[in-house]
C-alpha cells in the first residue's frame, strides 16, 4: 500500500500560486505559524511557533495570511487523483491518505510504478510536490513517506523491513509523542529496535496496557489494519493555536465564533447535522481539556451550534483566566445525514435558516472572507486550521 503526503502543504500552495515566493522562506499565519515552507523550516521555523519568534529566527521570511479555500480546493484535486488511481483510498487528513494498490498489478503495474505515476500527476495537474511511501503495511508506508521527504519516493520491500525500521528513533512510531518519548528515553529506549527487544508485557507495564501493546506490535512489524475506504467520518473539527500572550474573553469569543461559523458551513455543505459540540482547550501549561454538550436533536444551524459553544466557553473562562490558554478548538460529532434532521418549528429557527442559506450562497460566490460578523472587523481573520479531513 501507499502513504501519500503533500509536502509543506499550505506553504506549497502559496508558492505555487505566487511564483515570486518560490525558493523563499514562507510562513503561513501571522500571530502563530500555521505552516512553513522547507526554506523556512531549514532556518528553524516550526508549526505552532509564535509569529514573533518565527520572525526572529528567520527575519527575511515572507509572512502570508492563510487561504483555507485554496487549500481545500487543492486537497480536493489531489484526492480526485487518488481515487482515479484506486478505489481503495482512506483519507486521514486534508493532505495525506493511504491507497491500497496491491490488486492493480495486471492493469497498472507494480506499486512502485503506480507511485511514480501518482507523483507525476499531482505535480503536473495540481502543481504540488508529494512524498510517497510504499510498504506492506500502513504503518511502514507512513514512516517511509516521512523518511522520503521532501518530494521523495521510498519503497520498503518485505525483506528490508527490519533493517529499515529498527534503527529509527522511537519517535517514528505512530503514537509516540513528546511525553511518551521522554518516558522511553529515561529508560534508555531510543530506537524502535530497543523497544522491539522488550517483551510485550514489559512494554504494557511501562506505557499502559493499550498503548504499550500497540506500540510494541508496531515495533515488531505487526500492523494488520487494511485501508478502509468505507469509513465515514464521525466528526469534523478545527482549532487555532493562540501563542503565549494573554487573551481576553472577548477575543476568545470572536475566535470561537469564527471556528463555529466555518464548521457549520462545512456541515451544511456535506449534507450533515451534528448532535454533540466539543470544546477543546490547551492551557498555558500545555495541559489539555475538553468540554462537551449533546443536543436533544441534531442540528446544522449556525445559531444553535454557536449558542452551545459559547456556553461551553463561558463555563471554562474562570479556568482560562487562572491558567492561560494557548489553543482553542471545536469538534462537531455524532454526525447524521441532513435528511434525518427533525423538522424545526418555523417560529424557532426559520430566520436563522434563511440567514445561513444566504450567507452560504454569498461566500460560495465571493469567497469565505466576503461576509464577516461585526465583532470581527479590524481583527486578524485568524482562520482556523483543520483537525480532520475536508473530504470523505
UniProtKB/TrEMBL annotation:
Query: Mind telling me which SUPFAM superfamilies this protein's record contains?
Result: DNA/RNA polymerases (SSF56672), Lesion bypass DNA polymerase (Y-family), little finger domain (SSF100879)
Asked if the keyword Transit peptide belongs to this entry, the reply reads no
| One GO cellular component, as annotated | cytosol
Keyword terms of this UniProt record? Cytoplasm, DNA damage, DNA repair, DNA replication, DNA-binding, DNA-directed DNA polymerase, Magnesium, Metal-binding, Mutator protein, Nucleotidyltransferase, Transferase
Task: Tell me the compartments it is located in.
Answer: Cytoplasm
* A Pfam family the protein falls into: IMS_C
The record's listing under Gene3D superfamilies reads: 3.30.70.270, 3.40.1170.60, 5' to 3' exonuclease, C-terminal subdomain, DNA polymerase, Y-family, little finger domain
Q: Which domain of life is it from?
A: Bacteria
In what ranges is there compositional bias, type Basic and acidic residues?
222-231
Q: Where is this region: Disordered?
A: 222-244
The entry's Mg(2+)-binding residues are 5, 95
| Primary location class | cytoplasm
Question: What PROSITE patterns does its record include?
Answer: UMUC
Which ranges carry the UmuC domain?
A: 1-177
Q: Which GO terms describe its molecular function?
A: damaged DNA binding; DNA-directed DNA polymerase activity; magnesium ion binding
GO biological process: any one?
DNA repair
**What quaternary structure, including any partners, is listed in this protein's UniProt entry?**
Monomer.
HAMAP family of this UniProt entry?
Answer: DNApol_IV
Query: What exactly does this protein do?
Result: Poorly processive, error-prone DNA polymerase involved in untargeted mutagenesis. Copies undamaged DNA at stalled replication forks, which arise in vivo from mismatched or misaligned primer ends. These misaligned primers can be extended by PolIV. Exhibits no 3'-5' exonuclease (proofreading) activity. May be involved in translesional synthesis, in conjunction with the beta clamp from PolIII.
- Protein name (record): DNA polymerase IV
- What is the species of this protein? Microbacterium thalassium
Which gene produces this protein?
dinB
Amino acid at each position: 500500500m501507499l502513504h501519500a503526503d503533500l509536502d509543506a502543504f499550505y506553504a506549497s500552495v502559496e508558492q505555487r500560486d505566487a511564483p515570486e515566493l518560490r525558493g523563499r522562506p514562507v510562513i503561513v499565519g501571522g500571530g502563530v505559524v500555521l505552516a512553513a515552507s522547507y526554506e523556512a523550516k531549514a532556518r528553524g521555523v516550526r508549526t505552532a511557533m509564535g509569529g514573533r519568534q518565527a520572525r526572529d529566527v528567520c527575519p527575511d521570511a515572507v509572512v502570508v495570511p492563510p487561504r483555507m479555500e485554496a487549500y481545500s480546493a487543492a486537497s480536493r484535486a489531489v484526492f480526485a487523483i487518488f481515487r482515479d488511481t484506486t478505489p481503495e483510498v482512506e483519507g486521514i487528513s486534508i493532505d495525506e491518505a493511504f491507497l491500497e494498490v496491491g490488486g492493480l498489478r495486471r492493469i497498472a503495474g507494480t506499486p512502485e510504478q503506480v507511485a511514480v505515476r501518482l507523483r507525476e500527476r499531482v505535480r503536473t495537474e495540481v502543481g504540488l510536490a508529494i512524498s510517497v511511501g510504499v510498504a506492506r503495511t500502513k504503518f511502514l508506508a507512513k514512516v517511509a513517506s516521512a523518511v522520503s521527504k521532501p518530494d521523495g519516493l521510498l519503497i520498503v520491500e518485505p525483506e528490508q523491513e527490519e533493517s529499515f525500521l529498527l534503527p529509527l528513533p522511537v519517535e517514528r512510531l505512530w503514537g509516540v509523542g513528546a511525553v511518551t518519548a521522554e518516558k522511553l528515553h529515561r529508560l534508555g529506549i531510543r530506537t524502535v529496535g530497543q523497544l522491539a527487544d522488550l517483551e510485550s508485557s514489559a512494554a504494557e507495564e511501562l506505557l499502559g496496557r493499550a498503548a504499550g501493546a500497540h506500540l510494541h506490535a508496531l515495533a515488531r512489524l505487526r500492523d494488520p489494519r487494511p485501508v478502509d475506504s468505507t469509513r465515514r467520518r464521525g466528526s469534523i473539527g478545527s482549532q487555532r493555536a493562540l501563542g503565549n500572550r494573554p487573551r481576553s474573553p472577548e477575543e476568545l469569543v470572536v475566535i470561537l465564533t469564527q471556528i463555529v461559523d466555518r464548521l457549520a458551513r462545512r456541515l451544511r455543505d456535506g449534507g450533515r447535522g451534528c448532535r454533540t459540540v466539543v470544546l477543546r482547550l490547551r492551557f498555558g501549561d500545555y495541559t489539555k481539556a475538553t468540554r462537551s454538550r449533546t443536543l436533544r436533536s441534531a442540528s446544522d444551524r449556525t445559531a444553535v451550534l454557536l449558542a452551545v459553544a459559547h456556553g461551553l466557553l463561558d463555563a471554562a473562562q474562570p479556568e482560562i483566566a487562572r491558567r492561560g490558554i494557548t489553543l482553542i478548538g471545536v469538534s462537531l460529532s455524532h454526525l447524521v445525514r441532513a435528511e434525518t434532521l427533525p423538522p424545526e418549528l418555523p417560529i424557532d429557527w426559520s430566520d436563522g435558516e434563511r440567514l445561513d442559506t444566504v450567507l452560504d450562497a454569498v461566500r460560495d460566490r465571493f469567497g469565505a472572507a466576503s461576509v464577516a460578523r461585526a465583532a470581527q472587523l479590524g481583527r486578524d481573520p485568524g482562520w482556523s486550521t483543520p483537525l480532520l479531513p475536508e473530504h470523505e
